[in-house]
Amino acid sequence: MIKDLTPEQQAKIPVYLERFRECGLSTVPCDKKKAEDAVRAAYTVQGKEQPKYVFWFTNPMKASLAMLAIEQDLVNDVETQEEFDKFLTESESKIKKVADVVSSINFGSFSAYWIAFYCFIAQQLPVEKKDRADEVMEEIVKNCGAFYTTTNCIIFSEKPSEIHFNSEKRLHNFQGPALAYADGFELYYFNGIKVTKELAEKPVSLFTKDDIVKETNVDIRREVIRKIGNQKMVELLNYKVIDSKMIDDIFYELITFDIGDGRDRPHLKFPNATNLEITHIEGVPPDVKTVEAALCFRNGLSTYKKPEVLT
């Protein structure tokens, strides 16, 4: 039993993390031959008969539709890529339950994070290896986006051509697609929350009050507010001032507004110290009723204390 890693083994962990991070975020077009050879090698490792057909699709949604068509016995006598592409174009509306099959998709570049863990164990620790399984899996995540396997065929998907993340590694792009494929297929996310193309591509200057209050999904509404910014939000929404005070030549206002869900949200509003054209809007807890209480919350104080003037 392995209880502790040696210093040398610990030093290898960040190397593996970086190596497989590059695999997972790669937008380099797939090497189809290497991907096919690697998946066929996986069949061999598992002692399974090699599939007769291999199909490639330009994005994972098309690959999922192809797999569903096979599972639902909707496609017959298709042997070439051209025939399968033509079938999907003509029959997409007949194929159901896309979400179910997407959840069962095999690992590809997006699964590099857990393949890193497996490969580290297989390659750096004194454990029994099985027929190059670690090498096969690494080749797969390097060379394909995702794939499905059946008794008779392998269905591959290309990698994305663009990937955008926030600092927490969640899919994110306030200006366009967070995930894009070379064929034009795109997915839109704000900080990991799926949104519409319209919200992602809409310029901040064109947002209206209705864009905030009509959105019933609280997660999407929160992200829309993050996109347009508090200052723009205050311009769009009718707010009322519940307290105001001049402190050390800075005019503070405690304001509140309702974004359409019946709840008042207090915010501390004050000008930037070096650029008066910039206004800061910071949220405070619902029980805050005064500027002093808002400043206490902002500065982590239990009671308000006026700053001392240094002489």
Task: Please give a quick description of this structure.
The chain is an alpha+beta fold. It has helices spanning 7-24, 32-45, 60-71, 81-91, 98-102, 112-124, 133-143, 197-201, 209-213, 218-228, 230-236, 291-299; strands at residues 53-57, 146-149, 153-157, 162-163, 179-180, 186-187, 189-190, 193-194, 239-247, 250-258, 264-271, 279-283. The chain contains 12 helices and 12 strands.
- Structural class of the secondary elements? alpha+beta
Estimate percent helicity.
Answer: 25-40%
**What percentage of amino acids are in beta strands?**
15-25%
Order of secondary-structure elements: HHEHHHHHEEEEEEEHHHHEEEEH
- Backbone CA Rg: 27 Å
Widest sheet, order of strands: 9-10-11-12
The beta-strand count equals: 12
Number of helices: 12
Question: Residue ranges: pLDDT <50 for 5 or more in a row?
Answer: none
Mean pLDDT: 86
Number of domains: 3
- Give a quick account of the main beta sheet: strands, pairing sense, barrel closure: 4 strands, antiparallel
Distance between the termini: 66 Å
- Shape call: elongated
Describe this structure in words.
By secondary structure, the protein is α+β, with helices and mostly antiparallel strands. The chain is about 40% helix and about 20% strand. The protein has a four-stranded antiparallel β-sheet with strand order 9-10-11-12, sandwiched between helices. A three-stranded mixed β-sheet has the order 1-3-2, sandwiched between helices. A three-stranded antiparallel β-sheet has the order 4-5-6, with no helix packed on it. A hairpin with a 5-residue loop joins strand 5 and strand 6. Helix 1 (about 5-25) runs antiparallel to helix 6 (about 110-125) and helix 2 (about 30-45) runs antiparallel to helix 7 (about 135-145). The longest helix has 18 residues, at about 5-25. The mean pLDDT is about 85.
